[in-house]
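Dear colleague,

Thank you for sharing your sequence with our group. We've completed the structure prediction you requested, and as agreed, I am returning the results in plain text so they can be pasted directly into your records. Please verify that the sequence below matches your submission; if there's any discrepancy, let me know and we will rerun it promptly.
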Amino acid sequence: ISMAAIEQIQVSVAPYDVRQGHFVGASVNTVTRSGTNSFAGSLYYRFRDQSMVGTTAGASTINPGTFDFKKYGGWVSGPVFKNKLFFFVSAEDDALEQPGTTWRANRGGETVAGNVTRVLASDLDALQSFLKSSFNYETGPYQDYAHETPSRRYLGKLDYNMNDRNKFSFRYSQLDSNTDVLLSDSSSLGFGNRRTRSTGLNFQNSNYMILENIRSGVAEWNSIIGANKANSLIVGYSKSDESRDSRGTFFPMVDILEANTVYTTFGFEPFTPNIELRY
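Please find the predicted structure tokens below.
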């Protein structure tokens, strides 16, 4: 849900309300806005980049890399029928681009320190060219590439005052997003330790993505019964897809060793294809 659509946030610790049970710790509940008898709306744009963050931690210099975050969106609300039926809709789009890795290949003769690895750029360039010419396999770059996290959110809500004792509302929300992630470091297949910073450097197309696609709809009917009773009927349906996806085309994963540790890796990330997480 976009922040512009939130009216208030409630935090419940060990609530007695049976509707908020079945969790350990605390529950964070967001209350979305509703329409009123007046039309209202807003547009906004936010941004952030490397010039807005610190570059030192004590005596150490930190390289935040080059990143770019942009968010824009808007909302509008108002009456469909005054005093009776109201609407609220919002949409938000944001995109984060940040370094996939700030580590770089050694140009030859450089000291392995800071963000300079032992992996020679000449070796990676030769390997990249060989795989393209011999197998038509695109490895992608091995440094100076971005990880992207695009996301888009929608929310719509209707509030209906049926009469003085009965109110009905319906809310629908949607999120479409995915996040780039570095390849697995597991040794259950291959040698592992592929991302040991000073020793290994892999190609971009060996990385993978985590999806985050959510669809949710909730209808709620609140009624007052007699002089001292109230009832809420809530019906909801949510579907979430957090499956994994791959960046590159299929090619067997290969770990190349030097001094008994992984020097570089290319090929299809083997732990994520067909991993599906839907609920």
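Summary note from our side: The chain has a mean pLDDT of 86.

Kind regards,
the structure core
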